[in-house]
Amino acid sequence: MTKYIASLCLAALLFSCREAEPTEQKPKTSQALTEVVDGTFTEYYPGRKKVKFRGEQDAAGKRHGKWVFYSENGVELSVTHYINGVREGFTIVKYPNGTIHYVGEYSNDKEVGIWKTYDTNQKLVEEKNFDALNAAGE
Predict the structure, then answer these.
(1) Which phi and psi angles does 6 have, rounded to 5°?
(2) What is the pLDDT of residues 44-103, one digit of tens each?
(3) What is the tally of structural domains in the chain?
(4) What's the CATH code of the domain at 6?
(5) DSSP class of residue 55?
(6) Residue 82 burial class via C-beta count within 10 angstroms: exposed 0-12, middle 13-18, buried 19 and up
(7) 30, 48, 81, 98: which is deepest, by most CB within 10 A?
(8) pTM of the predicted structure, to 2 decimals
(9) Assign residue 82 a region: left if phi > 0, alpha if psi is -120 to 50, beta otherwise?
């Protein structure tokens, strides 16, 4: 019985990991939660009425350009920029009410520069200089 449960868990894990990386594909039926149309990947919440993720892909099916994550209520929760699957440039993450949680920049998938974190009242609670941390080897 334990082997059976472990096998089911492993299969579920492998299946979920495989779906996490979108690949170039033709638009699926209305029951599918993801589609790629003209290089734009869109993932929907169940019911396909609200967009969960949307962003451009390169020819290899990797994230490329601006990617946006939305709440089920349609609130923009994060924006991150990619170049051929690698985070590059400005990113912003918001609280569910739409106020800024943190902002920063990536260079070659690593945090760089000064990142700022805010509380739910938009009070700055932390500034972290990743250039200094990266130089120190942290």
Answers:
(1) -60, -40
(2) 999 888 999 999 999 999 999 999 999 999 999 999 999 999 999 999 999 999 999 999
(3) 1
(4) 2.20.110
(5) E
(6) buried
(7) 81
(8) 0.72
(9) beta
Q: Domain of 123?
A: 2-135
Side chain identity, residue 106: Y
Token pair, residue 100, equals: 């800024």
CA distance 42 to 47: 14
Which residues is 69 bridged to in the sheet?
A: 53, 78
Residues found in the chain: 138
3-state DSSP call for residue 129? strand
Q: Residue 11 has what DSSP assignment?
A: H
Quick one: tokens of 111? 């945090």
Instruction: Report yes or no: 80 and 87 within 8 Å, Cβ to Cβ.
Output: yes
